[in-house]
Amino acid sequence: MDTQFSISFFSLLFLCFLTCYSVSSFNPSDNYLINCGSNTNNTIDNRVFIGDLTKPRFLSLDSSPKSSQISVSNPNPSSNSLPIYNTARVFVDGSSTYKFSIKKMGIHLVRFHFFPFESQNYNLSSAKFGVSINGYSLFNGFRPNMMSLREFTLRINNDNLEIVFIPDVSEPNFAFVNAIEVISAPDYLILDYGVINIDNYGVKEYKNLSYQILETIHRINVGGFKLSPFNDTLWRTWIPDDDYLVLQSAAKRVSTNHAPNYKPGGVNREIAPDFVYMTAKEMDKDNVTAFANFNITWNFPVFDHVLYVVRLHFCDIVSIGLYQLYFNVFINGLMAYKDLDLSSLTVHTLASPYYLDFVVKMDQSGPVQVSVGPSGLSTSMKKNAILNGVEIMKVINSEVAGSGSQKKRVFIVLGSVVGGFVLLSFVGVGVFVVLICRKKRKSDSESSVWTNLRTMGGSMYSRGTERSTSPHRSGLKIPFEEIQYATSNFNRTLVIGTGGFGMVYKGVLRDGTKVAVKRGMPGSRQGLPEFQTEISILSKIRHRHLVSMVGYCEEQSEMILAYEYVEKGPLNKHLYGCGLPLLSWKQRLDICIGAARGLHYLHTGFAQGIIHRDVKSTNILLDESYVAKVADFGLSRSGPHLDQTHVSTGVKGSFGYLDPEYFRRQQLTDKSDVYSFGVVLLEVLCARPAVDPMLAREQVNLAEWALEYQKNGLLESIIDPRLKSEIKPRSLKKFGDTAQKCLAEYGVDRPTMGDVLWNLEHALQLQEVKTTTDADDTSDTFTTDISVSRIVPHAHTSILSIRDTSDEHLGKSTSEVFSQLVTNDGR
Description:
CATH architecture of the largest domain: Orthogonal Bundle
Oligomer: single chain
Shape: elongated
Low-confidence stretches: 1-24, 398-474, 522-526, 771-781, 783-827
Distance between the termini: 66 Å
Number of domains: 4
Structural class: alpha+beta
């Protein structure tokens, strides 16, 4: 154990004692702890195991006529072993059953403790037996030859739990058990969707995981020490990862003394304890200097050729800022998750826990191999990958554990056969009817995937209404099966990004429309409010420089949004990504102008206006012609009423772009978007992220650093060096002045987005003008009149006025719809 880890170990141990009483523990409805074969109760880790010889009222013990139950004691108990291992209940010949009354149906943990000691009459190591729960076999032919704990996670849908011990029938035999735990767990411990199934044929979603019986095979605290049940709210044991690490020199331990940033509705302490998320292993680039890119790999032995659930726990405790860590995850050599971005998945929160579930099939004896390595999105200075914890569970069978007795299952099977016959008959008739309808309505086959959308306020538009080649679509609601078709059943190869809401897939609808499908996932840090906000906002807006919503789906507990597919992706990748063509200064100005037009429309196109609240370069997308489109309206809010100056609301946004006045006062105005857009302008100019903790301290925050240079007249020295010979001084000055005004500390001193738009168009004209007589305005004075008469002649073609923009893209004159856009006192 190295010195650094020793210090971290004792720091965490001290923190454990400080916090163990302050952290509220989980209080299960069902919490049965049985000390088998004992007439006394034993307390272990503040938990009382009740002797089954005391005949507690919640427990009954039945045996078959051939079975006899014997209580045995260990004549030589070890002082190091727990008291529950000093006695055992032995079942000879026939089967015997423990019966528990279940108070709360749902997910439960069931644990069996075995210690094969030798008593006067029985050598427990010679036992061979099986165990079933409510008629479903957990294991057979089990011969415990050492102290062992077997844990199962299952759904109980009955008010009784029957655990049956069955001696092996191949020879005179017996069964035994030392202790039993039956504990109700939160239903969110095992989720039914959002689970990723990985095999050699690709990636797809695995459904109904909570209806499987799962046996825990490995539970690993990566980078940390052993955690006893005392440290876990569900009384689980976590062991260190060192014995499973393939190359020790590839990884180094990291830890923190700060508790994880748990988010409401997200991962909590029942998923994994604090100490799992407070330790990790990261790439040890100091030891492996020969390779810039390498993976950290662990091998976890398994022996059965069945399905396994691999749960990986993550918490970014290695970064000092958001959006600094991108890495890939591999399972058994296959790409399981590409470009994992914990900052996005945890909604702009650093050191916030997150986990991913994968299902893999082992066609040969283990091991299950887990690897993490740097992503292609990582810069050379930030190549890293981490892992905090691993759980591997074997899938026992696919039945519901609480279905009842064997007799009930016979009726279920018979009912299924009869019902299936009837169902097939109906399906056959249905298919016949559908085929006839298709012959009659071939021209309507594409529009049939659209259904009406319930009105949520304002006008509803679908992208289909804009397409002259498509029939009129009456709403935005898309059936789930159409989304499955568009994304090839959510094929992992079609993933183009991830965010706090979930994964984003590229897809194509049946009518050929390309879409970006954003699918909400269980455990998403966003959720229903953001889903509803995006539908409400996007169904009311329609503008060339705003991403359009094609439709949405909320069937089968899904939350899915489908947008127009924007071919070239987010702006930031084109500014400082890898392998993409250089954006010229004119292209960058055009992109900024387009984004400003979209935001100006949001701010002034409605009675209250709409405040985006998350303006940043990753939310400005570029189409195939590099036309900018503002995206992601999940955090948007309606602006203040006419008699109000602001909206009082909790602070939302992204680090590095957040309006300091909004942060201090929690008073949101459209000037908060103006501040964020000012940061984007500097990103465009300097081609670097808004926050880069790898730089010197004074350079970490782009806005603060660049403003100092702007105020001192030195802005030219920090711009993208690839543009230095391209930008004309007057254009640069106008652009820099605009950014500076946007970043004023107080909102009242900032321009409106209309003013910003005007000055950006002026900067573009100054860049393209060929003679000094065409434009000599380089003053710091901001123009405020945005009427048509103020448009300055363009060198080659006339610049679109605000009126022109609205007319072209809304299909109606500005005066008919948004008269505020051409007045000085709009709104």
